Amino acid sequence: MDLDITCPHCGQIDLVQSVPALHADGVSTSYGTSQYTGVGITTTGFVPVVGTSTVEHTHATELARSLARGPAEQPSGRLTILGLLLLIPALLALFPAVGSVMVDDAEASRWTAAVVAICFVGVFATPGLIVMGTVIRRDLRNAKIRRGRPHAHAVWQAGFYCHRCGVAYWPYSPAPGIPARQPFAPPQFRWFVWTAGGYNNA
Description:
elongated; alpha+beta; 5 helices; 20% strand
């Protein structure tokens, strides 16, 4: 089967490039070093910490970003550690709060102590719970992107881009609902790809 990859807008082929090749040309990675400073805790108190680390930078052209296969995943590892650290004061406050409830013998004062204890622990737990809620939302979004990536990739890799006209198109329909031989601006092309992946609103 002969595949007609000529641009549906100008009918030419000389400035046509596949979307995966265009994306590969437009994305580059560089490595460098970066300095960081901070404060460490030792048995004698706080000490300054200075060091260097290797940094990886990914650069993408505007065109490569506009024809991206999917949104980038949002990291949640450091945020999880922060959330767990913020929950430590709430756990430490839990023991005295439970102890105050157990001390009271009267039923009415026990209920009052329980409400006060819950509020007391809640004040310390709120920042950690907010951060952990953000982590859960990020993880659900990342899972949605990972699930949809194979479907989006099948549509994305079949696309072509005409540098003369500035339009993307599919020579054939790689999936149901994908129009063949119709020119689209890069944001429209991306909308079709992301919709195929099910993460257009991610």
